[in-house]
């Protein structure tokens, strides 16, 4: 199984690791089959811009790399842009992932959606019409 330089870089030097104490949205998602768990923290300003994103991931190298890349891709972006983040975009930004590790990119996408869903819930807004349903990724 070969990983791209970017995957190895994000695994060895993950960006945005940690938690945000006063996060505006926190999402956690796991994959029961492989045991990966991702927790995503978002700081969102009054204009709906994600000013900070951090993560804690328990999982394989690809899970850490996809979490790291996902936070990089949404930081400084609007909520609308973050909602457009797909696992495919994460994979492309990492210059690819082995097929057996694609579920990690889905986990990263869903962790972002989970955190945004939490953000809307805290604001008293039903997240379902905006964020959509959150699904646990298949292996």
Give an overview in words.
The chain has 139 residues and is an alpha+beta fold. Helix 1 (5-12) packs across helix 2 (61-74), helix 2 crosses helix 5 (102-122) and helix 4 packs across helix 5 (102-122). The mean pLDDT is 95. Helices cover 42% and strands 17% of the residues. The chain has helices spanning 5-12, 61-74, 79-83, 87-93, 102-122, 128-131, and strands at 25-30, 37-44, 50-58. Strand 2 and strand 3 form a beta hairpin. The protein is globular, with a radius of gyration of 14 Å. The protein starts with a helix and ends in an 8-residue tail after the last helix.
What attributes does this structure have?
alpha+beta, three-stranded antiparallel sheet, Sufe protein. Chain: A, 17% strand, 139 residues
List the helices and strands and how they pair.
Blueprint: H1 5-12, E1 25-30, E2 37-44, E3 50-58, H2 61-74, H3 79-83, H4 87-93, H5 102-122, H6 128-131
Antiparallel strand pairs: 1-2, 2-3
Measured distance between first and last alpha carbons: 16 Å
CATH topology: Sufe protein. Chain: A
Mean pLDDT: 95
Could you say which overall geometry the principal axes of the C-alpha atoms support?
A: globular
Taking the sheet with the most strands, its summary is:
3 strands, antiparallel
Provide the low-confidence segments as ranges. none
């Amino acid at each position: 199984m070969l990983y791209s330089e970017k995957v190895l870089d994000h695994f060895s030097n993950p960006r945005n690791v940690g938690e945000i104490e006063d996060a505006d949205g926190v999402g956690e998602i796991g994959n029961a089959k492989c045991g990966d768990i991702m927790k995503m923290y978002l700081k969102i300003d009054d204009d709906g811009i994600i000013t900070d994103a951090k993560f804690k991931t328990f999982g394989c190298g690809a899970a850490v790399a996809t979490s790291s890349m996902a936070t990089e891709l949404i930081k400084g972006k609007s909520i609308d842009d973050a909602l457009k983040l797909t696992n495919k975009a994460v994979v492309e930004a990492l210059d690819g992932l082995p097929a057996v590790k694609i579920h990690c990119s889905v986990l990263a996408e869903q962790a972002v959606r989970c955190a945004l869903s939490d953000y809307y819930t805290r604001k008293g807004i039903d997240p379902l019409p905006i964020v959509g349903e959150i699904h646990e990724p298949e292996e």
